[in-house]
Amino acid sequence: MVVLVGAPATAGTIYVDVSNTGGVEDGSQAHPWNTIQEGINAASNGDEVVVLPGEYVETITFGGSNITSNFTLRSIDPYDPDVVAATIINGDLDADPDSPNGTVVTLTGEEGNTCVLTGLTITGGYTTAGGGILGSSTHATISYCIIKENRADEGAGIWQCDGVIAHNWIIDNIAGTVPSAHGGGLGRCYGVIKNNLICRNHGDGLTWCHGIIIQGNTIADHTGWGLNETLAEVTNCIIWGNEAHPSSPSVTYCCIENWEGGGEGNIVGQDPLFVSGLLGDYYLSQTAAGQAADSPCVDAGSDTAAALGLDAVTTRTDSVPDTGIVDMGYHHPLIMPPSVFPLSPGWGLIGDPPEPCALADCKLDDGVDLLTWADAVAAGWVDPPLYFWQAGSGGGYQLLWSADSLQTQHGHWIQAHRECALITPPQQPAVPYTVSLEPYWNMIGDADHDVALSGCSVDDGSQTLCWADAITAGWIIPPVYYYHTGLGGGWRTVATSGGDDDSLRQGRGHWILANQPSLTLIAP
Q1: 3-class DSSP state for residue 376?
Q2: How many CB atoms lie within 10 A of CB 276?
Q3: Distance (Å, rounded) from C-alpha 370 to C-alpha 420?
Q4: 497: confidence class by pLDDT, cuts 50, 70, 90
C-alpha cells in the first residue's frame, strides 16, 4: 500500500489510530498515524501523542526522538479503565510468546519527570531485562497503565525507571525460570512507587528498588519475595501471599505476612481479606460495602486519604471513595455498579445514570429473562419514546431522542407493561453530584446513592447556601416531589424533617421548584 504523508500536524497534539488504513497519514485527527512509533518520531518537547483504542503490534522507543520534557504519550482517557484495557501495545511481533522480540517500551534515560507515559496496556514483551518497560534510569512518569504478561530474565514488568510510578497494574509478568527471579514486577526502580497493584508476577514483586518511597501499593501473590533487597521507606502497603517475607529496613503502617522486623503501625499476620469487585481482585472486604467482615487494613494507614491524594479512589467494592484515615494498599478507580431502575406497569419516573447512557447499552430484567432495550421494546415490556422535562424558558416535556440516551441531571418518564428493572452498564460516577436548576419546575435525576436534602447545598454563582438557607432565601420552594409507581402509587413529597422520605433516592426522578435562575444543586 502507498502511504500518502500530508502536511505534518502542528506542535501540540499528534494522533495515532491503528484503524487508519486509508493511505493518508499526517498525525492530525482526520489523518492520524497508524503506528505509535510514527507518532513519537513526529513529536518534540511540548507535544502529546494521543493513541486511540486498538491493538498496536509493535515495540516502541524514544531513542532518536529528542523528547526529554513536557511530553505525554497517552490513551484518549487514561482515567477510564475500559479505555486503558482497550489501548494495547503488544510487543509479541510474531505471535509466538516463546520467541523474544525485545522490550515493548524503551526509554532513553534522558527523559525528565514531565515526560509522561499514561493510560496504556503494555504487554507481550520478551527480552533479557525490562520486558514491559526498559527505562535506562529515566525519570519519566509512568501512570494509569496496565503492564502485564511480559517476560524477561530480570525486571519483567518495569526495569530501571527512577521517576514516579503510580496508579498502575503490574500483573502476571514472568521473570526468569526460578521462583525467586529478580523483579517479576519491578527491578532497579529508584523513584516514587505509589498506589500500584503489583500482583501475581513470577519472581519477586520488587527487587533492588532503593528509591524515595514505596507507598500505598498492594504487593501480593508472587512466587518470590514481595520486596527483595529494597532499601526505600515502605508505608501503607499490603504485602501478602508472597513466598518469602519482605526485606526492607523501614516498613511502617503495612499489613505484612511473616514479618519480624517491627515498625510503627504494622499489622502482622492478619489476613487483609481481599475480595473481588467491578475491576477484578484485591479490593478490601468491608461490611459497609456488603461483605461479612471488615479488613484489618481499613482505616489503618499513616495519614488521611485526602492528605495522601487517595480520597477520589477506593478499596471498596461499591466504589465509595476512601475518607478519613487512609486504607492500606492499592486503591482502585471509582466505577459505579450498574444503575438499576425498578419499573411497574404504567408510567414511571426514574432517575439518571452518572454519565449519559445510550438506551442501546441498557438491559431489562423481569426476574426470568434479561433482554436488550431493543428486544424489550419488541417484546412489549416497555413502550418508546421516553420523556424528560426541559426546565427554564421554552421548557416542557421533551422526547428522549438526543442520541437515544438517558441524560444526566434529568428524571425520565418511561412506560412499562410488566414488573421489570432497567439496568445501565457500570459507569464512572460524578462526585459530587450536581444538577442545574432554572426558574419553575425542574425534573431532575438522582445521585448515585441516597442523599438527604439536609446535606445538600445550592449555589447561585456567587454564594453557596445549605438546603435550609436556600429555602429561607427564596431560591427553592418546597416541597420536593417524586412519583411512586405501582399499586397505590402517585405523587409523594420528599420530607425535610427526617424519616424514610427525607432524601433524594437512588433510582427515581424528582421535581424541584426553583425561584431563581442559574442555580446548582450540589449533593455530597
Answers
A1: helix
A2: 10
A3: 10
A4: very low
- Sequence letter at residue 294: D
Whether the ω angle into residue 479 lies within 30 degrees of 0, i.e. cis, is: yes
Exposed (0-12), middle (13-18) or buried (19+): which is 137, by Cβ within 10 Å? Answer: middle
Helical H runs in 345-410? Answer: 373-378
| CB distance 26 to 5 below 8 Å | yes
> Residue 192 corresponds to which amino acid?
V
44-87 pLDDT, tens per residue?
Answer: 998 999 999 999 999 999 987 778 888 999 999 998 899 999 99
- CA 37 to chain CA centroid, nearest Å: 27
Query: Does the pTM of the predicted model rise above 0.90?
Result: no
3-state secondary structure of 439: coil
SS3 134: strand
The whole-number average pLDDT for the span 420-429 is 76
Strand residue runs (E) in 204-273: 206-207, 213-215, 218-220, 227-228, 233-235, 238-240, 251-252, 255-256, 267-268
CA dihedral 119→120→121→124, nearest 10 degrees, is: -150
Coil, helix or strand for 373? Answer: helix
C-alpha 228, offset from chain centre: 30
Give the strands of the sheet with 197-199, arranged side by side: 54-57, 87-90, 121-123, 146-148, 169-171, 197-199, 218-220, 238-240, 255-256, 267-268
Contact 121, 56 (CB under 8 A): no
Which domains are seen in the chain, by residue range?
A: 4-218 (2.160.20.10), 275-334 (no CATH), 340-423 (no CATH), 433-523 (no CATH)
